[in-house]
Amino acid sequence: MVTGTQALFAGFMVLLIAERLLELVLSRRNAARAFERGGVETGQGHYRFMVVFHTLFLVACVAEVFGLHRPFWGTWSVVALVGALVAQGLRYWAIGTLGDRWNSRIIVVPGLAPVTGGPYRFLRHPNYVAVVLELLCVPLIHGAWVTAVVFTVGNAALLFVRIRAEEAALGALYSEAFAHRPRFIPEVRRD
């Protein structure tokens, strides 16, 4: 029998999956625009793995909650939900700041200056911070701790490869613009 909190979690997951599908449409559109402007793609090898990894994450969240009958943890689950919603806010702040330059692949249009506004004022990779937070928090909304651990660790390995490829593709202009910005955790300046 499905509990009320399981039904709410399933509804949340349906919305999250719909959001990901819309992001894929936006990503494809923006990638096509980047290619029209002479964009060059790198990182295709790990991109396929990344797509499979994130798809399996969504499946694992649902499978663990319903297959292993994970409980709703009350306050901890609410904290995880807030974390997941913060992750979505940060993701869309980054996407909105990048505009039509955002896509899920590594496509660099030669000659464009790096985007340094929005959350990029504080971090080099705000979207990846959102992904880390999401992979940790979404499963914990309904006690799927195995999924949270496995995919958080797997994502760390994936980001190690992804960030190196992305920063190499972006080149010297990026390195110069972001030389004094932290990758993941904003600095608290004491001026």
From TrEMBL:
Gene3D superfamilies from the UniProt entry: 1.20.120.1630
Listed name of the protein: Isoprenylcysteine carboxyl methyltransferase
Transmembrane segments: 6-26, 47-67, 73-94, 106-123, 143-161
Superkingdom as given in the UniProt entry: Bacteria
Organismal lineage: Bacteria, Pseudomonadati, Myxococcota, Myxococcia, Myxococcales
Keyword Nucleotide-binding (UniProt): no
Keywords carried by this UniProt record: Membrane, Transmembrane, Transmembrane helix
InterPro entries: ICMT_MeTrfase, Metal_cation-efflux_comp
Main location: membrane
Compartment(s) where it occurs, according to its Swiss-Prot or TrEMBL record: Membrane
Membrane topology field: Multi-pass membrane protein
Pfam annotation, one family: ICMT
